[in-house]
Amino acid sequence: MDIADDQVDTRSHFFGIFPKSKKEVAVPTYKKDLFYNTNHKRRGVAIIFNHENFTLPSLKQRNGTEEDCFNLETTFKSLGFETTKYKDLTLKEVDAVIEDLGNRDFSDCDCLFIAVLSHGEQGVIYAKNSAYSHNMLFDRFTPDKCPTLAGKPKIFVIQACQGDKLDGGVDVRTVEVDSGASCATYRIPLYADYLIAFSTIPGYYSWRNTQKGSWYIQAFCEELRNHWQDFDFVTILTFVNQRVAFDFESNVPNNPTMHRQKQIPCVMTQLTRLLKFSPKPVEHNAISNNGV
Fold first, then answer.
1. For residues 200 and 264, is the Cβ–Cβ distance under 8 A?
2. Of the candidates 40, 32, 118, which has an alpha carbon nearest to the alpha carbon of residue 80?
3. Low-confidence ranges of the chain (pLDDT < 50)
4. Closest Cα partner for 24 from 105, 143, 152?
5. 119 counts as catalytic
């Protein structure tokens, strides 16, 4: 659009603090490319924050989260990610890991993956000793702060409650239906190329089985392992939504309020291209690391 009459939707008397123009950074794709470049030497880095035990008395132990952590670690490794897992970190320790990660060089990586398994409420997640905003995870990886991730997917998977509402679902029946480029310089937003996948929608509980792990991580790992070569990532997340919505239902017969409850995940995407992973040569397979 070349018409010079763009305005912001805010109060006419509001004067905010506006960021200065950022220095130019390189991106690994042309402006009109349909797909993200997944032909880098390395698949990328996958970080798993696994929270099972808490010092806050109001937060119960998250039995079953070890199964989620193992499931994610196995899945990420199979895709070629360099996977690091962290167990029961304090807020200060989580912040230190994120800060260190934001200072790394991702020049030869396809993307970044961060998974958080914890308790949560709307807008916040819990570390071992304190709550923190989702934004603490996201803000360190904007292109002005982490230029080697500019134009690359930054994927966040958050397994946590976003409130205390229950979704009782509704019984339905099927009704019968009829069958039948060239290189150029351009500006990108700071929060382009992010995708945040929440296990549940704002305001609602997220369910976890103490033996098999959370509904969402079970579905996420299975669908990603089965379809990563065939479909783009957002399409795979649609399959995850379908599996969680239709295949899972709470089984708490001794508590009528909690029995037969449902769940639907929530995907917030700022991706600007399709993300479809291409196979890596054997010599580029990931090296696994164990975190704190």
1. yes
2. 40
3. 7-8, 14-15, 177, 179-180, 182, 284-292
4. 143
5. yes
Of 70, 98, 82, 83, which is closest to residue 41 (Cα–Cα)? 82
Q: Strands (DSSP E) along the chain, which ranges?
A: 42-50, 82-87, 109-117, 120-121, 124-126, 131-133, 154-159, 194-198, 208-209, 213-214, 266-269, 289-290
Residue 172: the pLDDT is 60
Cα–Cα distances in Å, from 11 out to 6, 8, 14, 15, 286? 15, 9, 5, 9, 50
CB burial of 47-74 (b: ≥16 within 10 Å; e: otherwise) equals bbbbbbebeeeebeebebbebbbbbbbe
Identify whether the C-beta of residue 200 lies closer than 8 Å to the C-beta of residue 206. Answer: yes
Catalytic residue among 51, 69, 109, 119: 119
Residue type, 69: C
Encoded amino acid at 79, one letter: L
Q: What residue type is assigned to position 264 of the chain?
A: I
* Helix, strand, coil percentages, rounded to 5, for the chain: 25, 20, 55
Of the residues 69, 111, 161, 221, only one is catalytic, namely 161
Q: Is 193 left (phi over 0), alpha (psi -120 to 50) or beta?
A: left
| Tens digit of each residue's pLDDT (9 = 90 or more) over 75-95 | 999 999 999 999 999 999 999
* d(C-alpha 108, C-alpha 93), whole Å: 27
What does each C-alpha distance from 129 to 56, 68, 87 come to in angstroms? 6, 21, 13
State the greatest distance between any 2 C-alpha atoms of the chain, in Å, as a whole number: 64
> Which tokens belong to 105?
């060089």
262 touches 206 (CB < 8 A): no
The dihedral formed by the CA atoms of 200, 205, 211 and 212, expressed in degrees to the nearest 10: -10
Predicted local confidence at residue 49, as pLDDT: 98
Tell the residue number behind the tokens 């020049």, with chain if given: 107
